[in-house]
Amino acid sequence: MSLPLKELIKIGENQLKEAGIADAARDAKTLYCFMDKLDSVGLMMHWQDVLQDKVGEEYFRLIERRASGEPLQYITGTQDFMGLTFNVNPSVLIPRQDTETMVEDALEILREGTLRGEKYYGASNAREILDLCCGSGAIGVSVAKLFPKAKVTCSELSGEALKTAEENARVNGCKGIKFIQGDLFSPFCGRLGKKKFDFIISNPPYIESDVIPTLQREVKDHEPVMALDGGKDGLDFYRRIAAEAPEHLHKKGILMMEIGYNQGEAVKSLLDETQKFTDIQVLKDLADKDRIITAVLKGKKAENR
Ligand code: GLN
User: Fold this and answer.
1) Atom 2 of ligand 1 has which residue's CA nearest to it?
2) Quick one: 231 exposed, middle or buried, by C-beta within 10 A (0-12, 13-18, 19+)?
3) Fewer CB under 10 Å: which end of the chain, C or N?
């Protein structure tokens, strides 16, 4: 039984719809393009082609993987982020659009010295940047690519994730990024002192442990729990970062972190309690939810704010 391509894709779409996949039409097309190495224009050009059975079989193997809840990006192996293409696999979180908002904020600070249009108090000449808990490297590699003056370090506990981040630097043509494996700041506590940065940016795990089983199956069954689980109240990593980051920032150094939509007040209090930070701001994402927190390490006594 040979089928025209457009019918094959329609059957794929219906199978995904029945399995409750929200973007069934898009995913059915994307999986075909992935299999046949086509872009969307190429797909249109072949829309009326009649296909051989074995093509259909291969296609439905991909459709079945997606129907069973495997994220599209783990099947195709890529996700676009900040206009770049990143390799992804189950050892790394799939980069999210919310995180692009944070990278855009960081780039505005680095390039313009402003944050969402307002003059920014933090280190005006920030160059040494740490992407803490880098996962796929989406943040660190994007900053290095889009602000080439940056000297970026990416750190990560998972060796598999760190390998993926290194690969992403390579495929995006970013030389000179340092990759370091270890638990939060431990690799930056040497015998000769603590390594300091101008700007620490992080998307740490921040989901409450009990919430994880309630997430979409794509997330809870496929994405790395280690990249999601922020402990009982979701704040474990913020607690440790708030306590340790001051030792790893130069004066007026910037700490910028992604947060959960309901964590703004709690993370602000954690940073406040250290009495080391000033200018703590909670910023919203495109859906108008709290998503990012920024803080500046206090400067010399005279210029404390
Ligand atoms: N934003 C991600 C999610 O909702 C979580 C990211 C994280 O824990 N750092 O799935």
Assistant:
1) 228
2) middle
3) N
